[in-house]
C-alpha cells in the first residue's frame, strides 16, 4: 500500500512540474515583452500602451458581439399573425368604417372618400425584418475588423469558436438574397407586361454585395463602404416597395406558376446545403475536433430559420392559391418541419459517426431535417404543377 501511495505522490509531482513548465512556456513571451517594455522611454511606451488598449477593446467588443444574439427567436414568426390574413399580397382591401366616420344616413356626397388600400407582402416584410435583425439589432460579424484579421491570421471559420453567429447570419442572408431575386424576376411584376420594380431591383443589388467588406480593403486597395451599409439600404428599398404596395402603386403577382417557381428555388437552395452537410459529415467526421462542423451547422440552421419565416409569409401572400389547390394541410406540415428543425440547438457541435454515442453527428441530424423540409417543398411543387 505504501509503494502505491509513493507512486501516486511521484505521479502527482511529475504532473505538477509539467503544468509549471507549460505555464512558464506560455508566460515567457509576456514576461520578456514586459522586461523590454520597462526599459523603453515614454515616446515608445505611450504608443504601445495605446495600441494595446485599443487591441484589447476591439477584441473584447468582438467577443461580446459574437456571444450576444439579439432578436434571435425561433418562434418570432408568430408575432406577424399571418393566419389572420385572408387577402393575398397586392389585392385591394375592403374599406372599413373608421371611428368618427359619417353615419349611414348621411348623404353619400358628404362621406369622405377613402384612398384605396392593398395588402402588403408578408414575404417582403419578413425579408426586411430578417436583414434588420442581422445588421441593426446585431453587429454584422463577417465584416468586423477582428473577424477579418482572424485568429492570429487563421480564418475564424477554421476554428471551433467565435464563428457560429457569423455562419448563422450568412445562412439567414442567403434566404433573403434568394427571395430578393425572385421578387425582382417574377413576384414583383406582371410577367411580360410590366417592368422591373426599381425598389426591388435596388434591394437585390445591395443584398448581393460582398459579405466581408470592412471600411478598408486590399482587393482592391483603398477605402470601401462596409457590408452593413448596403444591407441597410436594402431594408429601406424593401419597405418602400411594401409602402407602394399598400397604396396600390406596386404589383405583387400572386399566381400559381410564380409560387411554383418560388418553392422550386427554395427547394434547390436547401438541396445544395444538404449536399454540403452530407459531404462534410461523410468525409470529415472528427467528432468534436472537426473545426468546420460548427459553421456548416449554423449556416444550415440560419437558412432553415430564414426560410421558415419566408414560407410562413408566402402562405399569407398566396393564400388564394393555397385554398384553390387544397394545399393547406401539406403547407402547415412543411412549416412544422421547419419548426422541428429549429429546436435542434446543441451546446457543442459534433461531427462524429452517425451511430456515435459520445460524439454524435449533428450535421447528419440537421441534414435530415433539411431533407425533410425539402421533400415537402418538392411535393408542394408537384401538386401545383398538376
From TrEMBL:
Pfam families: DUF2333. This is DUF2333 family protein. It comes from Rhizobium rhizoryzae. It comes from the Bacteria. The keyword Transmembrane helix applies. InterPro entries: UCP029693 (IPR016936). Residues 92-114 are annotated as: Disordered. Residues 98-114 have a biased composition (Low complexity). Keywords: Membrane, Transmembrane, Transmembrane helix. The keyword Lipoprotein does not apply. The chain crosses the membrane at residues 21-37, 43-64.
